Structure formats: C-alpha cells, structure tokens
Amino acid sequence: MDSWIPYDDYPVVFLPAYENPPAWIPPHERVYHPEYNNELTQFLPRIVTLKKPPGAQVIPDLDAHQAGLQEGDKVLAVNDVDLQDIEHSKAVEILKTAREISMCVRFFPYNYRQKERTVH
C-alpha cells in the first residue's frame, strides 16, 4: 500500500510572522525584576464598554483608553458576536453601527503588532 501523497495535494497554509517571547528571567531574580509580573489575571478575558453619543464618533486613543483598552488587547467578541470566525468587514460594520459597544478583550502582548482585530 503506497501512502505517498504528491505535494500538490497538500493545502497551502500561511503562518503569522514569529515574534520572539520576552527574555527568560531566572526564578531567583523574578521577585525584584521590573519587567516580570506574576499577576496572571491580566491575561483573562474582560469586558470593556464604549458608548458613542448620537451623531458622534469614538475618538480612538482617548475613548478607548478611558474605557480600559490597552495596547496588546485582542478583541474576541463585540456585542456578543464572536469575531474569531467572521470576516473583517463584518467586524468593522458591527463596530461602526453600534451606539454602545461591549467588547470581550484579552491582553496578549506577545503579538500586539498584528494589525487585524487587535487594539493599538
């Protein structure tokens, strides 16, 4: 039985660019190291709400920051719509048409340079 499959039959998969994680810090130095944080709850999903006044637009840096968004937040859902499997244009439509935007976000700083669906 021949199990060889020609390369042309494999799907093409494009992976995101790899970013190196932060440098490893030895355990005995972590307690006093300024860049090490043992607080893992910062990585749990949280809800952030933005309200747009009628006829006004959200001012990206100011309003988002005041609502609690930070650089490195990844938007998981908007108004209970999971953004993981929808097209970018649909996500933009949801964000533009809603007066009150309730976002489920998760802080994930190791790939915050990704442009799609990541708060900058």
From TrEMBL:
Query: Start and end of every PDZ domain?
Result: 56-98
Show the PROSITE patterns listed in the entry: PDZ
Under InterPro entries, the record lists: MAM_complex_regulator, PDZ, PDZ_sf
Q: Which domain of life is it from?
A: Eukaryota
For this protein, the record's Gene3D superfamilies field holds:
2.30.42.10
Pfam families named among the record's database cross-references: PDZ
Spell out the SUPFAM superfamilies in the cross-references: PDZ domain-like
The UniProt entry, under SMART domains, shows: PDZ
- Mind telling me which PANTHER family this protein's record contains? PROTEIN LIN-7 HOMOLOG
Question: In its UniProt entry, what is this protein called?
Answer: PDZ domain-containing protein 11-like isoform X2
- What is the organism of origin for this protein? Leptonychotes weddellii
Task: Provide the gene name from the record.
Answer: LOC102731937
